[in-house]
Amino acid sequence: MRLAALRAADGLKLRLYYDPSRYDVDSMRRVVARLDVLLESALDTPGNPITNLEILSESERSQLATWNQTSVTLPACQNLVSSFETQVERSPDAVAVAFEEGQLSFDELDQRANQLAHHLRRHGVGRESRVAMLLERSVDQIVAIFAILKAGGAWVPLDPLQPKERLASALRDAEAGVVLCHESTRASLPEGGHHVVLDSQWRHIATSSGEKPALGFDPANLAYVIYTSG
Hints:
single chain, 230 residues, alpha/beta, Rossmann fold, 2 domains, four-stranded parallel sheet, two-stranded antiparallel ribbon, 8 strands, elongated
């Protein structure tokens, strides 16, 4: 593509050369139209920096505005868990989460989250209880998040690579009485509290009901607590 400016009696004439094997006529017409808008904008507002000049026509701006009218009004009572459960009803057999060799459908994810939520409820987790997560990357992380929320608690993600002292400090500060972990991360935890080891204890956890816990949600309830490196 090459743009040439030619002197003429009444000013300058611009001529655009392009390779028709790479560009079609309609695309080049749009380029010329935008160049026309750009030059008019420069003449109308000569003091404006180039970054503030117009390049789109009125019709193109209207088209962009139309494309971006994607707002959706959601019910005031809807939350992450209810939205997820709605999707479970819509596509129970679709893959919801996958990691390496493991994957769960929406229905399987929901059932596991419900089973773990009931297990957590039996161990005292309720509204705004802090439940820590010290888990390796796996589908268990997603199961754990939904389970904690379904039980009414707030999840506290912890990094297995953090020093033991840092983990202990976060657990004390969050007042997390229950920690979800794997056998591989359990040794990093300080003494005390109740440890739910998902990989080695799942057979027992899976005996819990797969039905969702009878627990309402308030939008103002605490959902999570996160500790950053800062």
